[in-house]
Amino acid sequence: MNKIRIGIVGYGNVGKGVETAIRQNADTELIAVFTRRNPESIVTKTPGVKVVDIKDAAKFKNDIDVMILCGGSATDLPKQGSEFAAMFNIIDSFDTHAKIPEYFENVNNAAAASNKTAVISVGWDPGLFSMMRMLSSAILPEGNDYTFWGKGVSQGHSDAVRRVSGVKNAIQYTVPIDGAVESVRNGKNPELSIRQKHLRECFVVAEEGADRAKIEADIKSMPNYFADYETVVHFVSEEELKSNHSKMPHGGFVFRSGKTGIDTVNNHIIEFSIKLDSNPEFTANVLVAYARAAARLNSEGSYGAKTVLDVPLSYLSTKSHADLIKGFL
Amino acid sequence: MNKIRIGIVGYGNVGKGVETAIRQNADTELIAVFTRRNPESIVTKTPGVKVVDIKDAAKFKNDIDVMILCGGSATDLPKQGSEFAAMFNIIDSFDTHAKIPEYFENVNNAAAASNKTAVISVGWDPGLFSMMRMLSSAILPEGNDYTFWGKGVSQGHSDAVRRVSGVKNAIQYTVPIDGAVESVRNGKNPELSIRQKHLRECFVVAEEGADRAKIEADIKSMPNYFADYETVVHFVSEEELKSNHSKMPHGGFVFRSGKTGIDTVNNHIIEFSIKLDSNPEFTANVLVAYARAAARLNSEGSYGAKTVLDVPLSYLSTKSHADLIKGFL
C-alpha cells in the first residue's frame, strides 16, 4: 500500500505537531515542509525531509497527496486556502468562526475547479466541538447548548496583555467557572452571562519600576478582551513565567442538555470534553486523521470543500470496514 | 417539503419513545405502529396512527419511508432485520456486539438486493459510544480506551436476579466506580480489572419467609453476572421498589487517553459521557435522527447496510449545509 504523502505549510507549533503526528500514523509520510522563512534556517526533526520556499510549492504537485496548511487564520489562510486548494488536496484549521462561510465558498470554488478535495476548519473548535454540537442537537432537538473553553492559554488575550504599557511579558489563561459547568452537568439548564461562564487569569511580568496597580487596572478595563469578565492578575518574575507557564495546555467542554418524553419531563445530558497537555500537538493529530480522509475522498472523486460534518467517521481510520465494525461497534 | 413517513415495529419502551421523538422532529410523521400483539389492544398517543398486525407490514411498502425496528436483539431483530430491509429502509438498535458482523452481512444483502438503506446498531452503545471510540482512537493512535456504563438499570442483570429462588422482584444497577473513572480522567492510564471498573447494586423484594442470607449469597456467586464483581444487595419492599426504582435511567463514559509529541510526553484526554433520565427515550431520539439520514441516503442511491461510522453527521440534521456551517462550525 502506498503511503499518503503529506506536505506541511508553515513550520510553527502546529506544523511541528503535524510532523510528530505523522510518526504515529504508519500510513502517512512527510515529504516536505514549505516555509516563508529562509529554508536553510529550518531544521526538521525528520531525516530526509525537504524544506522548501513556499513560492516553489507548485513544483510538488505530483509528489504530495495532501497539503496540511498550518498558518494562522488572520492573514495566512485567507490567502493560502484557495491558492493551495487549486493545486493540492488540503486540510486546514481556519478558525475565524464568523468568516467560515465565506472561506468555505472560496476554497470550494478553487478545489472543485481542479478536482481537489479540501477539508476546512479542522481541529477541536471548530472541529470536534462543532461535531458534538451538531450531533447532540440533532439527537435532542429540544434543549440547550453550552460550550466552555479551557483551562488553557489564549494567544489573542496573552498578546493583548503584552500590549499594555509597563508589561514585559504575559500569559493569559481562559478558565471555565466550575460552578457553571456543574450547574449545566446537573441538568439545571442555567442562563449564563459571559462573566458567569469563564474567568480570565493573567500571569504578568512587569517592567522594572512599572506601576503595577495601573497595569492591573488597564488589563481589567480592556474592552472586548477583559472588561466583561472576572479577571485575576498575578505578577510573576520572568523565570517563573518561563518555568511554570511555557506549556500550551488547553481544553474545554461541550454540553447538550435536552428533554424528551410525552410531557418532556425526562432530561438528558450529553457531555464532550478534552483536556490537552499540548493544544498544537492535539490539533495536529486531528489534522492528520482528516488528511487520511481527504486522500480517500479525492480518490473516490469527491471534490470541493468539506467540513468535519460532511466526512463519515470511518474515513478517519486506517482500519477496514469489517475491522471497524468488529473493533468499535 | 414532504415529511419523512415513519413506521414503528414493536410498541415497547423504545417504540413508545420513537413515537414521542417524532413529535420533536417536525420533518417526520408517524404513519403506523406494527405489532405482534392484538392491534386492538394497543392505544397509541398519536391521533390517527394505525396499529397494524406485523404480518400485514408488506402492504405499507409505499406508505412508509423508514421503518424503525424497536424489537429486541435476542430473537426479534435477527429475524426482522433482513425481512424488513427487503421491503423498507430501516433503522435498528441491534446490540449484541459479538454478532454485529454477521447481522450487518445479512441486512446488507437484503437491503442491497432491493435498493433499500439500512442503518444498523444505532443507539448509544453500540452507536454514539462506538463513534467516540473510533473517532478518538483515529485522533490519538497511541493511547488507551476506556468505556464505563451507568449508573443505570441493566435489564439482563435484573432478570438474572429475578430468577433467584426466593426473589419476588428486583432491579439491578450497573455503577461505574468513581475512583476508576477519576484515575482515567486524570491521565493515569490505569490497567483496570472487571471488578475495578463497575460495581453491581441490587434492590431485591424477597418473598415472604424467604432466606435473605441465602438469596444474597446466591446472587453474589452467580457466574458471569455477579461473581466477578463487587455486588451490593439491598432488600426493599415492593412499594419502595415501585416508587424509587421504576425509572429507566442510564449513562456512561467513553475515554481515550493518548500521548503525542516527539518523546510522546504530552497526554491528552478525550471524554464523552451521557446521563439519561430515560434510556429508551434517549435511544429512540437517536433512532429518529438516523431515520432522517436513512431517508436521505436512500434518495441519493446509497443502498445496503450502514453503521453510524458510515454516515456523515450532517445527514442527521434538518438544517441546510450553509446553516450547519453558520450554526455549528
From TrEMBL, chains A, B:
State the source organism's domain of life.
Answer: Bacteria
Q: Which residues form the Meso-diaminopimelate D-dehydrogenase C-terminal domain?
A: 123-278
Swiss-Prot/TrEMBL catalytic activity:
meso-2,6-diaminopimelate + NADP(+) + H2O = (S)-2-amino-6-oxoheptanedioate + NH4(+) + NADPH + H(+)
Residues that hold substrate according to the record: 149, 174, 200, 250, 279
Instruction: Tell me how this protein assembles.
Output: Homodimer.
Instruction: Name the UniProt key words of this record, in alphabetical order.
Output: Amino-acid biosynthesis, Diaminopimelate biosynthesis, Lysine biosynthesis, NADP, Nucleotide-binding, Oxidoreductase
Q: Which NCBIfam families match?
A: DAP-DH
* Organism in which the protein naturally occurs: Ruminiclostridium cellulolyticum (strain ATCC 35319 / DSM 5812 / JCM 6584 / H10) (Clostridium cellulolyticum)
Q: What is the lineage of its organism?
A: Bacteria, Bacillati, Bacillota, Clostridia, Eubacteriales
Q: Which InterPro entries match?
A: Diaminopimelate_DH_Ddh, Meso-DAP_DH_C, NAD(P)-bd_dom_sf
Pathway it works in: Amino-acid biosynthesis; L-lysine biosynthesis via DAP pathway; DL-2,6-diaminopimelate from (S)-tetrahydrodipicolinate: step 1/1
Tell me one GO biological process term. Answer: diaminopimelate biosynthetic process
EC category = oxidoreductase
The name this protein goes by in its record: Meso-diaminopimelate D-dehydrogenase
EC number(s) given by UniProt: 1.4.1.16
Pfam families of this UniProt entry?
DAPDH_C
Q: Which family does it belong to?
A: Belongs to the diaminopimelate dehydrogenase family.
Q: Which residues bind NADP(+)?
A: 11-14, 35-37, 70-73, 93-95, 122-126
Q: Does the keyword Nuclease apply?
A: no
Q: Which molecular function GO terms apply here?
A: diaminopimelate dehydrogenase activity; nucleotide binding
